[in-house]
Amino acid sequence: MNSVYLEELYLRYQKEIYLYLYSLCKNREVAEDLRQDTFLKAILSLPEDHTNVRAWLYLVARNLYFNYSKKKSREDELDAAAGLSVDDDMLDGIIEGEKNKLLHMAMQKLPQQKREILILQYWGGLSQKEIASTLGITTENVRVSGYRGKKELKATPHKERLTA
Hints:
The chain has helices at about 5-25, 30-45, 55-80, 100-110, 110-125, 130-135, 140-155, 160. By secondary structure, it is mainly alpha-helical. The protein is globular, with a radius of gyration of 17 Å.
């Protein structure tokens, strides 16, 4: 694959892929590692004639996150069985301003699929068709779940958002 093309892809999409991964794992270092792995996969396997590189990058990032999550879950179970404590250092430096923090906390209470749809739609800027392709669901499901997710966010009481 052409190195100039890869550099252009990285410069164009690295920030939004990082934000997407961070929203899933809530850990700066893990999100950075997964972002790098996503672009490494692009170097190794993305054909140059691929029609929707952006959606493909999101799909790769999502799959890498779920693989990481499964592996971490197994490691945590082993640590718990061995009596070791696991330190969960949650960094919230990426979310600035009280309004964004409240939105972020409210979104964490949404079911996984609704949360991912809203993240991909608003922060990732993906179309419903691209989201459907990335998540392996229909565009109608994306539309309905996105609508219901927004409705649930609006219905979240202000005090509940503050205590999350």
